[in-house]
Amino acid sequence: MVVKIRVENVSFNYDSIKALENITFEIDKNILGIIGPNGSGKTTLLKCISSILKPVTGTILLDNNELSTLNRKEIAKIIGVVPQTANITFPLTVIDIVLMGRNPHKKRLEFETEKDIRIAENSLKATGIHHLANRLITELSGGELQKVIVARALAQEPKILLLDEPTAHLDIHYQLEILEFIRNLNAEKKLTVISVFHDLNLAARFCDKLILLNDGKIYSIGNTDEVLIAENIRNVYKVNVKIEKHPVTGRPNVILISPVNNGDSYV
Amino acid sequence: MRRNIKKIGVWIAIVVLIGAAFGSGYVLAHYLKSPEVKEIGETEEIVSFIDGVGRTIKITKTPERIVSMASSSTEILYEIGCGDKIVGVDKYSDYPSDAENKTKVGSCYSPSLEIIIGLNPDLVITWWYGRNSIESLEDETTVMYINPESVDDVMNMIKLYGLIMNKTSEADSLVDEMQDKIDNITNLVGGLNKTERPLVYYELLKRGRSTGQGTFTNELIFMAGGISIAADEPLRYPDLTDEYIIAKNPDVIVVVSYGAAVDEIKNRDGWENISAVKNNRVYSIDTHIVTSSPRLVDGLETFAKWFHPGLFVE
Amino acid sequence: MEKTYYRKRIRWLTIIIGLSIALLFTVLFALMTGVMGPIGNGIPGIDKISFRAVFEILLGKGNWPDTYKTIILKIRLPRIILAGLVGSALAVAGCAMQGLFRNPMASPYILGASSGAAFGASLVIVLGLSIFGIYTMQLSAFIFAVQAVFVVYNIARCKGRTPVETLLLAGIAVGCFFSALVSFMKYISGEELRSIVFWLMGGFWSATWDKVYAIFPLIILGVGVLLFFSKALNIMLTGESTAMHLGIEVENMKRIVLIFSTLITAAAVSVSGIIGFVGLIIPHVMRIIVGPDHRILLPSSCITGAIFLILADTLTRSIIEPTELPVGIVTALLGAPFFLYLLRRKKKVKWW
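Output (C-alpha cells, whole complex):
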C-alpha cells in the first residue's frame, strides 16, 4: 500500500519573506532527496509536507486526501518524521520513547497493548538497538539516539518517512548505517522516503530522485544523475565541481573544486 | 486586523472591570466605613443593633462567655465590671493585667477557631477587618464586628456593652466620667482657631508615616487643641516625605512608643531646624492610651499637656 | 518486554494504592490533632476530646457535646478537605505546567494567576467590597487570577501559535503589573494592611464547608481533565514539533491544559491565599521518586500534594498555639530542606 504524495503549486511566506514559490512535484515508492543551499527552502518544504506549516497557497495531497483536511492523528498514521536532532533531556527509557510512536493509533487514556509493544520491539530490532530497550535515553550516544528516533517513527507504521538531514551530526559509520537501513525499508516495506540532504554525495548515493531548490523555487527535478550535474551545482551552490561516477557504487560522486568568485565568468 | 480588534476588546474589558470594581468599591466602602449606625432599642430581646459591618445583631440573653478579640473592648468590659464574663482574648488584650490570665485565641487576623469554639462562647467580639478569618463562626455563635472611628463611637460602644451586659448604670457612669474629663479639656482648647493650635507631627512605626484624614488619632490631637500636619491627607496612613515635614515645620512631634527613639528623631539630618526639635518638644507616647478604649481620656490629657503646657499644669 | 510493561503497571498501581492509604492516615491524624485534642495541648479547664469521641462523631454515633461535633465536623474536617484539595490542585497544575513548558522552574503561578488573585483579594479587602456577600473576596481573587492568565495567553498568542517563551515572559510581565497593583493597594490601605499580608501568606484558618463545596467540583474536573492529557504531556517533553509529528494537536492541547491548570490554580488560591512551594516542589519530588512519566507522575503528585499540605496545615495549627502560622511559611520551611536532601541524594540522576 503505497501512498502517493502530490505537492501542487505550494507557496509559503515567513511574514513578507518568500520561502517557497509554486512548488509542484509528485512522488511515490521512491527515495526523494531535497537538496539546495542554505535558505533555499528545504526544511520549509519538509515542514509543509509534515503539516507543521500550512502553505499559503497550493495543496498537498496524500493519495486523494488533502493534507489540510486531515487531523494530526490521521496524518501521523501516514507520515513519520525524523528530525535533525532529538533534544530529549529527561530520563525516559528507550522503549517508552519508541512506544510514543504508537500514540496516533491509541485513544487518550488507552494503555499500550501487547500488539503495540510487539511493534515497538520490532522497530527496535529493525534498527538494531533492541538491547538498549530498557536503557535511559539520556545515557545514549548521538548515533544510538538517532536510531531510537528512527525506531519511533517506524512504530508509527507510516507510509511515508520524512527525514530532515537525519545524519547531520553523526560519524560516517552511523551515517551510512542509518541511510542503508532506510534504503532497505524503502525496498522491503515500500515506504516512500523524502529526505533533506546537505551532503551531496550522501544524497547521490541514496536517492532515486532529487529536487534541487534555489531561492524557494525548484531549480531542477528528476533522477539523481539528471539533477546532479556540474552546471546545476555551479549555478545554485556557486561552487565549481566535477561529477564522476563512484568507482564502487556507480552512483554520481561530487568532487569539490573551488567556490565561484564574483569575478569569474561562467556561462 | 480582527485579532487586533479582539485584543483591544480584551484590554477594554479589563480596564472596565477594574474601573467598575473601583467605582462600586468606593461607594460600598463609604457605606461600610461611615460611622456605624446603632439603633439601640429595647424589644422582646435584650438589645438589637447594627454592628460594624452592617449586620443586625440580636442579643436575647445576657452573654456569660465572651471572647474578645479587640483589646479596647476587653478594657471596656473590665471597666463596666464584666471581666469575669470574658473567657478568651486576643493576643493584644493586655489591660487590665487580669486579661493576661485569659485563654489566648490568637490575633483577629488568624485566630484559632478551634480554641474559640472550644471555649464555647455566646458572644464573640472582633474587629471589622478580621471578618475574613472568622466568618465561619457566624453560624455557630453570636459574632459582632466593631468599627469605632471616633470618640463618639467609643462612647456609644460603651453604652452598647452596658445594654448587652445589663450593666447600663456602670456604663453610663463610665461615659459620664470620661465626658467630664473630655469637657475639662475641650472647654479650654475647643474654641481655639487654627492659628492658635500647635502643628503636630505624629509618627508611626516608620519614618514619615503619619495619620491622615478620618483617623482616631487625629481626632484626639484636635480635641487636645492641636492639629496634625497630615490632617488633610486623603490616605489614612500616609508616608510623608522629609521635605513635607520640614516645610510644615511642626511645633510638636509625637512618636509612638514602639516607633523611633526620641533622640534619634532629634538627630535626624535636616530636622534640626524644625520648631519641635529646636524647642525640645519631641515626645514618645504609649499607644495603649491612643485607642478606642476608656483610656483614650488619658491620651487626650497627655496630648493636651504637651500641646498647651501653659494651660495645663501638672 | 511485555512482562516489563506488566510489572510497570503493577508498580504504578502499588504506588497509587500506597499513597491513597497514606492520605487516609494523614486525614485521620489531622482530624485528631488540634488544641482540643486528642493530640494537642488542650485548653486549661476544658476537657480534651477523646480518640473515641472523634471516631464516634465521624460515624455519627454517640452522644457528645455540640462543641466537639462543631470542632470535628465544622472546623477540622472542612479545613482538612480544603487543604487536601488545594494541595492536589497546586501539585497537579504545577506538574502540568512544568511538562507543558518543559521548564523545571514552572509553577502554577508562573502565568500570573497568583498575582492576579492577590490583586483581586486586596482590592476587595481595601475597598471593603461585599457585592457578592461574604465570599466577594474569594470570587474576586478567582476572577482576577483567571483574567491575568487570560491576558497573558492573549498577549503571547500570535498567528495561531503561543510560543512557550513568549508565554513565560508575558506571564512574568503581567505578574509584575499585578504585583505593583497589590503594592499600591497595600499602600493606600489602613488597618486592612495586615489582612492583605496574611492573605498573601496563605492559610486555611477561614475554611468552611461552603468553600469546600465551591471548589470541589472545579478541582475534581480540572484534575480529571489534566490526567486525561498525561500521555500527551509525555510526548510534549520531546518538543513541540515532534509532538505534532506524533499526532498531538499541540495548540489545542496547550490551550486546554492552560485553561484547566489555571482554573484549578485560581480555585485553590481563591480559598487559601497564595501558598507557595507546593506547586513547584511536589512535582519535582515525585519525578525523583516515580520517574518522569506523567501517567504516574500526575496522579501521584495529586495525592502527595494533598498529603503534604494537610500535614503542613496541621503543623500550622499546632506549632505556636494559639496563633496560627501562615501555612505558606510551613510549606517552605518543610519542603525546601526535604527537596534539597532528595536533590543531593539523587544527584547522579539527571532528572530533567
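Chain A touches chain C through 42 residues (CB under 8 Å).
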